[in-house]
């Protein structure tokens, strides 16, 4: 099974000049934990709810500043031709919960740990990723 079979393709993106406050409101409205940041032509980064808390609020960055100040720009991405297993291995290796799928620097879709857990019941991909990501989260908390 290919990653394109399970990825979300209707992904809302925001421009890098949107404020942190506006982005947080958009995340609440959409009930999502991250929003990719794009200039309309290419994927520039992603902002997660954790980025808002750690890089924004905890670092005392004004919520009226642009999200470009807190986004994760060194992205790990996948491609449309990869398998679910390949995506799971990348997510596990990099300890990430969401993998943007790109083609020619443009966002095509996004796959989350939840997508793999719900839609790929053929092996233990989701539990492998969750174990690695949870291990990373626990290490950071200590």
From TrEMBL:
Name under which the protein is recorded: CBS domain-containing protein
SUPFAM superfamilies in UniProt: CBS-domain pair
Pfam families: CBS (PF00571)
Domain CBS positions: 7-63, 71-127
Keywords: CBS domain
Species per Swiss-Prot/TrEMBL record: Planomicrobium stackebrandtii
CDD domains recorded: CBS_pair_HRP1_like
Top-level lineage group: Bacteria
């Amino acid at each position: 099974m290919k990653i394109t079979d399970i990825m979300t393709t209707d992904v809302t993106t925001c421009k890098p000049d949107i404020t942190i406050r506006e982005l947080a409101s958009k995340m609440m409205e959409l009930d999502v934990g991250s929003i990719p940041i794009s200039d309309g032509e290419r994927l520039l980064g992603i902002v997660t709810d954790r980025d808002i808390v750690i890089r924004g609020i905890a670092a005392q960055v004004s919520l009226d500043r642009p999200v470009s100040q807190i986004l994760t720009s060194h992205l790990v991405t996948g491609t449309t031709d990869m398998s679910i297993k390949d995506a799971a291995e990348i997510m596990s290796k990099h300890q990430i919960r969401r993998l943007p799928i790109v083609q020619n620097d443009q966002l095509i879709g996004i796959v989350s740990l939840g997508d793999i857990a719900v839609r790929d019941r053929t092996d233990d991909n989701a539990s492998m990723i969750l174990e690695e990501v949870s291990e990373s989260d626990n290490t950071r908390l200590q």
